[in-house]
Amino acid sequence: MSTVAAVSLAACLAIGPAATSFAAPVVAEASPSASASADAKTLRIATAGFVDTFNPFISIYLTPTNIIRYVYESLVQNDAEDGSPTEGLAEKWEASPDGMTWTFTLHEGMKWSDDEPITSADVKYTYESMMNDPMLGTANGNLVANFESVETPDDLTVVINLKTPQAPNPGTEIPVLPEHIWSEVDDPTTFANDADVVGSGPYTLESYSANQSITLKANPNFWRGAPKIDGIQYIYYTNSDAQIQALRAGEVDLVTGLTDTQMTALEGEEGITTHAGTGRRFTSLSVNAGAETPEGVAYGTGSPALKEPAVREAIRLGIDQESLLKNVLGGYGAPATSFIPIAFEKWHLPDDDEAIVSFDPDAAMAKLDDAGWVAGADGIREKDGNRLSIRLLADAEDIVEMSASEYLVPWMADIGVELKLETTDSDTISDRTAVSDYDMYFSGWSVNPDPDYQLGINLCSSRPDAEGNGATSQDGYCNPEFDALYAEQHSELDEAKRAEIVHDMLRMHYEDVAQITLWYGQSLEAYRSDRFTGFTTQPADNGIIANQAGYWGYYTVEPVVDESSSAAEQSGPGAALWIGLGVLVVAAGVVTIVIVRRRKTAGDRE
Amino acid sequence: MTDTITPVNAEVHDEKLAEASPTRSSFLSYFGTKLGGALISLVMVVLLGFFAFRVLPGDPVRRIAQERPMSPEQIAELRRQYGLDKPVTQQFLDYLVNIFTGNLGESYVYRTPVSELIGQYLGPTLLLTGTSAIIAIALGLWLGQRAAWRNGSLFDKIATGTSLTLWSVPTFWLALILLMIFGGTLRWFPTGGMVSPGVEPGTFDYVVDVARHMVLPVVTMVAVVFAQYLMVMRASLLEEKSSDYLTTARAKGLRDDLVRRRHAVPNALLPTVTLVFMHIGGLVAGAVTVETVFSWPGLGKLTYEAISGPDMPLLQGTFVVFSTIIIVMNLIADLIYRQLDPRVRRA
Q1: How far apart are the first and last CA of chain A?
Q2: Ranges of each domain in chain A
Q3: DSSP secondary-structure letter at A306?
Q4: What is the 3-state secondary structure (H, E, C) of A110-145?
């Protein structure tokens, strides 16, 4: 190859990317406005979530389980208002007085998205599959663990016989699958279920392209009526900053899980509305008050000082929740009482409960004085030669934990407690806390509308063994009185009475200081309000749009009719700029050709 | 993981070659040594692939069960499904047997064979890194020879200065800045992904759409790496510049430009060949950052997700594949260099 050719190749390659990059948007420039109007009825959501599978029997990651909520209706749905049980496939239900038998009546005339009728046989098939095959119980097996048998006296009636009395409605949270599809599948445990899915919810899953997009389309047969938009598209963005840019550029319509800085950056952007919703999550400091196995054998490295209730109470009194909310969360949250978030007002322990204490360093010091902890030379308290020194595990990659720690350390020093910050990665924290190798660490859960599960993982019997295996425990808490109340609420069918017992339990848990609940963080979301409106939040009063315990968020959404002004503004740089750039590229090409030719003739001249 | 292999490698290879004897029979022994080295490296990678990820903290099942309403029976069932209930020695034997049959295990997260996943994600990575490599090589070599020929000129200063500045810029940062300016604010290019949803594969629109999605990641990768080609080409040509044969060529009355293109550049190109091959391996690995920022559905992003999972079989798989690519590319570089350089073959 002559050097002339080599050089011109190099030149073309150098200009090449510029040529494609400048030429391409001219084509695309025309399409955004065209596709924007054509796709105005498709809601595009940015996502980064894992998809293990869309098989409802085994799917456990957040993104697919959220989508499954939209695709398959359950017998009973969690209400948008406050998460309490409301109509799903069943229009009414009744528990026997002893709480051992629940009878559900389905709506008449419901159809799957392929027009087949929805009957009680579908419910029986789904529940029994989960009860009989442990593999099919991977995702929701715990929800049918108390089921003795399922009967279907007729096409519209489902009877669930339980092993023990149960107050929480057994028909919630289990996606009901179409028997006529699933019974034909060779192996339901490995069925991917990721294309042309037959469902009963507001949307059905049309297609899935791993790490690129997930497409849902509206189900015209949905018993509440078809959604007002044609469908939903989840588009993958690994990087959360890229999601923000995609929202600004109008490539997606909804972004969730923002940080407070991202939220602030988006405020005031034209056509975008930011939304801070009351979520179903709490953040806490888990306190190791002495871990024991269910058999009562102590294990772990927890500080003996934390076994003293006075020390735990003092630590709580020394923490300024309001200040953390303001400085760490940018104000996007609510002060917390206990582990049932304010989103579930019925069960939540009210802020004005007599047990709730507020920030009071003087009271904290008085408690420690009374307990015999005396300040030493450096201000840190001592008793019997032991320093009041507590380790706090924090995730070095978690900005919120790191920033909260910066406040906690001096606050504790103020009351004479040395807080030693140990920063590490989340895997190490998970491993160390599993074997109780900690004093305190940042923890938190997303809580379901019914409090039963969350209460249940605070029982003595929920504690794991010394290797961290076996049951799941929230904080390793154990109090036989709490256990007794749990059993009582679990079978109390009168909701008002049940709520009272739940409050008693939360108060007891608060007074025992098994954890220090720091805040209920808000869920930060932003959407293109110039394209869509009418999102239903859960709870209705300033709740969340995405990640609900229900399908309300995207069900009622509708396109904005008048988008004349914003659409024009959205379509990027003007045509003049593109024409100019096009001319430039052509000119560059001409110059290259001239140079190459000159060189060729130069060669001849020699 | 770094994006780059420093140009110093070229010099290392020079030394090796100086030792190597240029006869035919010694080529076989040279080939044998290099191939043997590569195979040993591969075996180490396979072993490391298992053990390195066993010592990492984090129990995948515990992590999945965290914050999920799961009964102990469900957790035990997951452990069984993942094969974690078996002793480590058994898991290791299974791993060895599987890897020799091309089975890299099943991903915990995606519930799909790892080899299948890697196959799916390899294409986009090769497209992205291949395009970037071609552009970076062409741009670097061309600028490098121009800069060297006019050593000390304004062109030289600007080209060298710019490339070195870009080289020292963190890839992640540059990618985000480009994304914000040309994606979010100006809206010239898409902010992520490889293709817009709904575009039919195989159509003209599809090609244009993929090309648009490629611009920002390719520009990022090229900007960060072309410096090393520039520097090697520049250094190599500077060395040639003082050679006698160039004086001879000039003495013949050849135009300066022609001396450069016909005589100096072809000779100076040779040391860069090794670098090119060694670098392709590094470039594939370096795709992790760029693919993550631009949500490019390639191996880099797959690795990133495997780390955040954590998804041990998938991590093992991508680790083995990445390492294999780098080892093979290095082997090719070693062999090609020896074959190509006329000064080595002169006997």
Answers
A1: 19
A2: 42-253+531-559, 280-522
A3: G
A4: CECCCCCECCHHHHHHHHHHHHHCHHHHCCCHHHCC
Share of chain B above pLDDT 70, in %: 88
DSSP letter at A77 equals E
Q: Which of A27, A143, A425 sits opposite B208 (nearest CB)?
A: A27
Q: Which residue has the tokens 């201000």?
A: A379
Find the CB nearest A248 among B184, B189, B292: B184
- Which of the 8 DSSP states describes residue B259? I
Q: Distances from the Cα of A560 to the Cαs of A46, A51, A551, B272, in angstroms?
A: 19, 31, 21, 58
Residue A129 CA to its chain's centroid (Å):
27
- CATH class, domain B120-345, is mainly alpha
The CA distance from B80 to B336, in Å, is 48
Q: Give the DSSP per-residue string, B170-217.
A: -HHHHHHHHIIIIIIIS--S-SS-SS-TTPPTTSHHHHHHHHHHHHHH
A14-18, A390-394, B106-110 — most confident range: A390-394
Is domain A280-522 annotated with CATH 3.10.105.10?
Answer: yes
The neighbouring-strand residues paired with A287 are: A440
pTM: 0.82
Q: Taking Cα atoms as reference points, which of B244, B248, B280 lies closest to residue B137?
A: B280
Cβ-contact A357, A372 below 8 angstroms: no
Q: How far apart are CA B346 and CA B339, in angstroms?
A: 11
The β-bridge relationship of strands A389-395 and A386-387 is unpaired
CB spacing of A238 vs B295 below 8 angstroms: yes
Give the residues across from A218 on adjacent strands: A203
For A133-158, the pLDDT digits (tens) are: 988 988 898 899 999 999 999 999 99
Question: What's the first-to-final CA gap in chain B, in angstroms?
Answer: 41
Predicted confidence band of residue A52 (pLDDT cuts 50, 70, 90): confident
Tokens 């006698």, residue located:
B244
Interface pTM, i.e. ipTM: 0.80
Quick one: three-class SS letters along B57-80? CCCHHHHHHCCCCCCHHHHHHHHH
The hierarchical CATH code for the domain A42-253+531-559 is 3.40.190.10
For residues A478 and B37, give the distance between their C-alpha atoms in angstroms, rounded to a whole number: 59
Contact B194, B210 (CB under 8 A): yes
The string of pLDDT tens digits covering residues B31-49 is 888 889 999 998 888 888 8
Residue A265: half-sphere exposure toward Cβ, Cα within 13 Å: 14
For residue B224, is pLDDT > 80? yes
Domain map (residue ranges) of chain B: 33-103, 120-345
Q: Which of B56, B61, B64, B70 to mutate to test the interface with A (most CBs of A within 10 A)?
A: B70
What contacts A388, CB < 8 A, 6 or more positions away?
Answer: A305, A311, A368, A373, A380, A381, A382, A416, A417, A418
Residue B212 contacts A, CB cutoff 8 Å: yes
- Which chain A residue is nearest to residue B117, measuring alpha carbons? A210
